[in-house]
């Protein structure tokens, strides 16, 4: 498994689906581990009843059907697919509504979904997902990107409430790809994925949704900055190491 | 204990895992090896070997994948007589394990999987270009080597004659391929990168014209607690007049230098624009309100949403 995870870190993020498929066929007995630890671009499906898109993941799947957070029904229809309890469903509905506005404000487009379900011992797990297509044919409002996608998966484990506080553990993954293309500068593609964790003990005075939302917002901000400054910055640094910018060179060149 | 799982890309196969044939396993191993980033094939090889658990299949795959990888990344191998490096390219390939080095007029035998040069011998007369062609080639090579040495800290280059190498004198067309490669491996810093450019230089005698076509490719991989890769490429064209070997060499090198410098500048511009423009099409740093999202005020959302819709704000 360690070798498999190392491979996934080395192969180009654009090829991650092919790579995972290959690993699944070579290591069929590790499929559960691979599917839960490897991040793949998110897929979207249409809720046929409400005509709204929703995101697919392991947490809303049963057999080959997926539950829509909008209508709370499975597509393709399932006789008795598991549903969250009425209490959690209420939280789930509110979460989806609020997250839609959050998504709109930061992403100006895209699709989001939230799934909540019981864990053991009065805990629950919430999964917040966002899929944004930023290409100029998608929701890219400024038209810079030939191709661009941001997929975020946030899984929060919320512990039981004790003395007015609860423990929140967030695991976030962002998968990102962007491509610009034009005649004079050619094709420029940056893609990557990073995963981080964050844990807090918070007062439940403002409610679970508020706490989870703030953690996610903070995490997304950090990941965006990380991707931009650290990760992209490192690849930029590498390019300058391979071919130092002209200014430095010109100082050393003797006149021909 | 749920972990941050990714989207379920289709249910994982049938109830019983199908056993793959040896050939299928080898194909998969080959894919991983050939797609390893520059400088990482040995690490990928270790992983693949461990996952396959079958050395015979691994060796079958490696024998086919390593040459592809080495040629695609213009691998430079030190020649045993310390006369320099030989580049592994399709242009200099004489057969599966023998590669021609134009600068020292030698033929190197290599072991692709071990990535070493095992032997060199002087090239035969029929493997070498004519003196007329060699004059052009070596002068260009000297001029380019100077450029590459000054510009790329870890750069290597070679000039191959790929067509018309036996031309005795003026009146014939011929074609060179210039290969430039710079590689940086920093596995301890979780970072690797490669710059490679391939220039086709067509000397057209009748038109007294030299047509130049370039393909530049840059790759970088950073993988500390994540996996981020840059993949950038550019194709360009230019031309100059057919001159003496010395003047042609200078002209051509200037053209190469000009386009490569411009390309570096445009890469830099792309990075500079990233945070404020291109990235914004994916996710803004902050909402238009320039404040964090007001999670406490759930009532406000329905209100904000309605106002936003009515006023068409942000649409």
From TrEMBL, chain A:
Instruction: Output the Gene Ontology cellular-component terms.
Output: cytoplasm; F-actin capping protein complex
Recorded GO molecular functions are: actin filament binding
Question: Where is the protein situated, by its record's location annotation?
Answer: Cytoplasm, Cytoskeleton
In which family does this protein belong, per the annotation? Belongs to the F-actin-capping protein beta subunit family.
Extract the PANTHER family matched here: F-ACTIN-CAPPING PROTEIN SUBUNIT BETA, F-ACTIN-CAPPING PROTEIN SUBUNIT BETA ISOFORMS 1 AND 2
* Pfam families to which the protein is assigned, alphabetical: F_actin_cap_B (PF01115)
**Entry-linked InterPro entries:** CapZ_alpha/beta, CapZ_alpha/beta_2, CAPZB, CAPZB_N, F-actin_capping_bsu_CS
Keywords annotated in UniProt: Acetylation, Actin capping, Actin-binding, Cytoplasm, Cytoskeleton
GO biological process terms held by the UniProt record: actin cytoskeleton organization; barbed-end actin filament capping; cell morphogenesis
- Biological source species: Musa balbisiana
The protein's predominant localisation is: cytoplasm
| Name of the protein | F-actin-capping protein subunit beta
Q: Which SUPFAM superfamilies match?
A: Subunits of heterodimeric actin filament capping protein Capz
Subunit comment for this entry? Answer: Heterodimer of an alpha and a beta subunit.
Which ranges form a coiled coil? none
Biological role stated in the UniProt entry: F-actin-capping proteins bind in a Ca(2+)-independent manner to the fast growing ends of actin filaments (barbed end) thereby blocking the exchange of subunits at these ends. Unlike other capping proteins (such as gelsolin and severin), these proteins do not sever actin filaments.
Taxonomic lineage of this organism? Eukaryota, Viridiplantae, Streptophyta, Embryophyta, Tracheophyta
State whether keyword Acetylation applies: yes
UniProtKB/TrEMBL annotation, chain B:
- The keyword Cytoplasm is assigned to this record: no
Q: Where is this region: Disordered?
A: 1-21
* Compositionally biased tracts (Gly residues): 1-14
Q: Name one Pfam family in it.
A: F-actin_cap_A
| Assigned GO CC terms | cortical cytoskeleton; F-actin capping protein complex
List the molecular function annotations (GO) for this entry.
actin filament binding
Keywords, comma-separated and alphabetical: Actin capping, Actin-binding
Q: Which domain of life is it from?
A: Eukaryota
Q: Which residues cross the membrane?
A: none
InterPro entries annotated for this entry? CapZ_alpha (IPR002189), CapZ_alpha/beta (IPR037282), CapZ_alpha/beta_2 (IPR042276), CapZ_alpha_1 (IPR042489), F-actin_cap_asu_CS (IPR017865)
Give the GO biological process terms. actin cytoskeleton organization; barbed-end actin filament capping
Protein family (similarity comment): Belongs to the F-actin-capping protein alpha subunit family.
Q: How does it assemble?
A: Heterodimer of an alpha and a beta subunit.
Biological role stated in the UniProt entry: F-actin-capping proteins bind in a Ca(2+)-independent manner to the fast growing ends of actin filaments (barbed end) thereby blocking the exchange of subunits at these ends. Unlike other capping proteins (such as gelsolin and severin), these proteins do not sever actin filaments.
Q: What is this protein called?
A: F-actin-capping protein subunit alpha
**What organism, scientifically named, is this protein from?**
Musa acuminata subsp. malaccensis (Wild banana)
């Amino acid at each position: 498994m360690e070798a498999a995870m190392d491979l996934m870190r080395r192969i180009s993020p654009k090829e991650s689906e092919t790579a995972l498929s290959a690993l699944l066929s070579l290591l069929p007995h590790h499929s559960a581990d691979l599917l839960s630890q490897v991040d793949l671009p998110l897929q979207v499906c249409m809720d046929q009843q409400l005509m709204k898109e929703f995101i697919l993941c392991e947490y809303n799947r049963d057999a080959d059907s997926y539950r829509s957070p909008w209508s709370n029904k499975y597509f393709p229809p399932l006789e008795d697919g598991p549903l969250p309890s009425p209490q959690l469903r209420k939280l789930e509905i509110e979460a989806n509504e609020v997250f839609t506005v959050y998504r709109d404000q930061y992403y100006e487009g895209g699709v989001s979904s939230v799934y909540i379900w019981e864990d053991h011992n009065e805990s629950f797990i919430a999964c917040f997902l966002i899929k944004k297509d930023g290409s100029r044919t998608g929701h890219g409002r400024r038209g810079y990107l030939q191709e661009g996608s941001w997929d975020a998966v946030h899984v929060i484990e919320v512990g039981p409430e004790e003395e007015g506080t609860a423990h929140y553990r967030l695991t976030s993954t962002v998968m990102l790809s962007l491509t610009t293309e034009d005649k004079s500068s050619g094709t420029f593609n940056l893609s990557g994925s990073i995963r981080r964790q964050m844990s807090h003990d918070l007062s439940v005075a403002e409610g679970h949704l508020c706490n989870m939302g703030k953690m996610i917002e903070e995490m997304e901000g950090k990941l965006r900055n990380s991707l931009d400054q650290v990760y992209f910055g490192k690849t930029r640094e590498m390019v300058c190491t391979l071919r130092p910018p002209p200014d430095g060179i010109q100082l050393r060149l003797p006149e021909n | 204990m749920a972990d941050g799982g990714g989207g379920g890309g289709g249910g994982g196969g049938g109830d019983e895992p199908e056993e793959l044939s040896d050939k299928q396993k080898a194909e998969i191993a080959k894919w991983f090896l050939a797609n390893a980033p520059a400088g990482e094939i040995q690490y990928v090889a270790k992983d693949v070997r461990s996952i396959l658990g079958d050395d015979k299949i691994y060796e079958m795959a490696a024998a086919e994948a390593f040459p592809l990888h080495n040629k695609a990344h213009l691998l430079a191998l030190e020649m045993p007589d310390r006369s320099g490096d030989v580049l592994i390219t399709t242009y200099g390939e004489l057969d599966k394990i023998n590669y021609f080095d134009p600068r020292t007029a030698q033929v190197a035998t290599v072991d692709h999987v071990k990535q070493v040069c095992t032997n060199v011998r002087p090239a035969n007369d029929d493997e070498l270009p004519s003196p007329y062609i060699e004059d052009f080639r070596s002068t260009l090579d000297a001029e380019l080597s100077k450029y590459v040495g000054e510009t790329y800290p870890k750069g290597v280059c070679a000039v191959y004659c790929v067509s018309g190498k036996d031309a005795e004198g003026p009146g014939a067309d011929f074609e060179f391929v210039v290969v430039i490669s710079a590689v940086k491996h920093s596995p301890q810093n979780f970072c690797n990168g490669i710059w490679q450019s391939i220039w086709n230089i067509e000397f057209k005698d009748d038109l007294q014209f030299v047509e130049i076509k370039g393909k530049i490719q840059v790759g970088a991989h950073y993988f500390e607690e994540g996996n981020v890769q840059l993949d950038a490429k550019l194709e360009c064209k230019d031309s100059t007049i057919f001159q003496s070997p010395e003047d042609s060499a200078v002209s051509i090198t200037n053209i190469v230098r000009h386009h490569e410098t411009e390309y570096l500048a445009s890469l830099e511009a792309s990075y500079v624009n990233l945070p404020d423009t291109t990235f914004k099409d994916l996710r803004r740093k902050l909402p238009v309100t320039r404040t964090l999202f007001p999670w406490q005020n759930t009532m406000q959302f329905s209100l904000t949403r309605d106002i936003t819709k009515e006023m068409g704000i942000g649409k």
